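This is your field. Pick holes in the following sequence-structure pair:
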Amino acid sequence: MLIALVSITVLSLRPDGLRQQLKYAARRLRLALILGGAYVLTSAVVRIAFPEGAITDWGLPLLAVALAIVFLVLGQNPTEKKPVSRT
């Protein structure tokens, strides 16, 4: 309960408010589910097609690292364009 209250408080203090931060969190959750599904599917195919060997030993950890990098790049908050003030 305390963790939920602290996280709501922290998200409320961030720019754009709680609603926008929850949208960002939902977007990251969808991205994590998609990338996790891609890893599970690829892992199953690799283990069926190549039960032993270098692809199984090195390919899956490299795939995990690549998907983590994709998550870090695509999971960032989108940049919002600030209105230009003309004075």
Notes: The chain has three helices and no strands.
